[in-house]
């Protein structure tokens, strides 16, 4: 179900800009929802699409079922994974948004919207479109059908072709302030006490997604070990062993993904205060973690090896002689 605009704590300005655009007579046909991962763009895009297609006097529709909202995201990796999705179980997804998905969407653009005057196309994330999909989408952006609007979620706008970016209006998402993060945690993880909320806020680097995952999965002990590895190094692998023990032998996928995001946020927090000689190592490790984060939902990584990889990347920033393992 699409979330109401009032629920987007910290992104009120973006929501008001979207409402103003809908109300205008010459609304731009393509939008980039741009900002770091974990700022709420996923939910925002669906709510924005629902608001766009809503007819006057009607309730906000469900973005996942409305016939005039088409969402292109990662499909299940195969038939077995599709069955898991249908059963509401965790499932593996394909690495990319494919050209076939874009072409199926374009076939629908040959007809008018089903229920109203407008149709919304959400691509989430546009960063993960394969090359053929990008080229196919560009044709639709160049000659958009009347009443069709595109919302491209992007964590890294620089990865998109300049020809895509130049045809889109950018809606930027900013990091949240501590009081806004606190409000988000209170709303979505009401069982978290004040100490847990404070720790989540400190670790999140302004990302509500990281803060919520921190509180929900109780990542305080893992975060403390990450900080020790960053500041002390881990030449004997002892801290990495403790990190793996803290994660457990068979952690839930959601907990594993949350740990990856936490590691990235921890490095981002560390960067500002680091001496220049160390900043290059932090940036390199952050880039490697970003790539792992992109791969983790689609690859069947061994949890223990992945945790050791995370620990090795963190250690590489503290001890220049130690390569990430």
Automatic annotation (TrEMBL):
- Which InterPro entries does UniProt cross-reference here? DNA_Rep/Repair_Clamp_Loader, P-loop_NTPase
Q: Which SUPFAM superfamilies match?
A: P-loop containing nucleoside triphosphate hydrolases
Reading the lineage from the top rank, the first entry is: Bacteria
Q: What is the name of this protein?
A: DNA polymerase III subunit delta
Q: Which organism is it from?
A: Novosphingobium album
